[in-house]
Specification:
Helix content is about 20%, strand content about 35%. With about 350 residues, it is an alpha/beta fold. Strands 3, 4, 5, 6, 7, 8, 9, 10, 11, 12, 14, 17, 19 and 20 form a 14-stranded mixed sheet that branches. It binds zinc ion (ZN). Zinc ion binds near residues 58, 61 and 154.
């Protein structure tokens, strides 16, 4: 017997122990077509918190979309089979999944909504505002305000890629706890820009973290996997599912990190990968002329680990090439190879240049 009532969402009743597709209406489009934000709700049999997952706020960032797919239906994309990640019967609480917030941006293969605005600068939105403000408002009123916790899934823009890492506001204890329970080796301090989902949600008392994993326009298996494991870790931490939380032996709490930049424009050939450890002064990329002859090189300004990397070969002077977090090789090797820790070692890193300068 269920210990909880049905969950009401926009006039739909979701029975305990079930999952259901619902949607949030956004008014009609140019052809009179109905527009909406798709939502999938899994409502458990037992009482527990409401966790919301949002993906595709930036329409071209797709790894998070795949993370949500795997969590709703399991690896075979069919619910009710043995590989399901979340058992509807055993769940405590409610999971509100928004696989793609910015559907029209996704169809246009772009970050912004069709009005070319960045929805993630317009929260909490405006009921009678422009298109993007209305999308932000609809999501904020109907999903964010219902949620006790929120995880917003992103990737780097198409010109760069990110080693999967969580961003959280270190000043807010509950956000920090959530960030730590996700289980990435790197956690970056960031309260988010004005109008970003995580900043505005935290402001109304919904602790929120953000995952940055991989690049845009792709489903990348490793990035998707890190998102699935991280969300399940958070759900275990919140008591929504039974789970042995897997944490790395060491985590790096990064207040600020350093970008290596191109000193001259040209065509970029990266010599390193995200997650790779580099020494100070090590050549990490070279820049060539149109014939492929080396005209410049980029050396690492730090000994540390690459967590962000340019992947677009076209660079101009000043472009960010690699984001490097200070860390010794021995520590990084341990952080990558030893898991199943219950009480990770922590190292605080505060380098000279803030993330927001990118
Ligand atoms: Zn994004």
């Amino acid at each position: 017997m269920a210990e909880v009532e049905s969950y009401d969402f926009e006039g739909v009743k979701i029975l305990p122990g079930t999952g259901q597709e619902v949607s949030l209406a956004l008014g009609s489009g140019p052809a009179g077509n109905p527009r909406s934000i798709p939502v999938y709700i899994i409502h458990g049999n037992r009482p527990g918190p409401v966790l919301a997952l949002t993906a595709g706020v930036h329409g071209d960032e797709l790894n998070g979309v795949s993370v949500v797919h795997h969590l709703i239906h399991g690896d075979d994309h069919i619910s009710g089979t043995a590989d399901d990640r979340i058992s509807r019967a055993d769940l405590a609480g409610t999971l509100i999944c928004v696989p793609v917030v910015n559907i029209e941006g996704m169809l246009l293969e772009q970050r912004e909504a069709p009005d070319n605005r960045d929805i993630n600068r317009l929260f909490p939105g405006k009921e009678d505002g422009n298109q993007s403000q209305r999308i932000a408002h609809t999501l904020f009123e109907n999903v964010v305000k219902r949620a006790d916790y929120l995880i917003d899934l992103h990737s780097a823009p198409h010109s760069r890629t990110n080693l999967p890492h969580v961003r959280a506001d270190f000043e807010l204890k509950e956000c920090m706890e959530l960030g730590k329970s996700f289980g990435t080796q790197i956690i970056l301090h960031s309260s988010g820009p004005n109008g970003s989902l995580r900043r505005e949600a935290a402001k109304i008392g919904t602790p929120t973290i953000l995952l940055e994993a991989g690049t845009a326009h792709r489903f990348e298996i490793e990035a998707v996997h890190s998102g699935i494991e991280g969300v399940l870790n958070v759900m275990g931490h919140l008591g929504m599912i039974e789970r042995e939380i897997r944490l790395p032996a060491i985590r790096l709490l990064v207040k600020r990190s350093k970008w290596a930049r191109a000193e001259a424009g040209g065509l970029l050939h990266a010599l390193v990968k995200p997650g790779e450890h580099v020494q100070k002064g090590q050549k990490i990329a070279l820049v060539t002329d149109p014939f492929g002859e080396e005209t410049n090189s980029i050396e690492s300004p730090r000994t540390g680990v690459i967590i962000g990397l340019a992947i677009n070969p076209l660079v101009r002077a000043g472009d960010p090439i690699a984001n490097i977090v200070v860390c010794s090789k021995a520590k990084w090797t341990r952080a990558q190879s030893e898991w199943d820790s219950h009480d990770p070692e922590e190292e605080s890193i505060d380098d000279e240049e803030s993330l927001d300068d990118v």
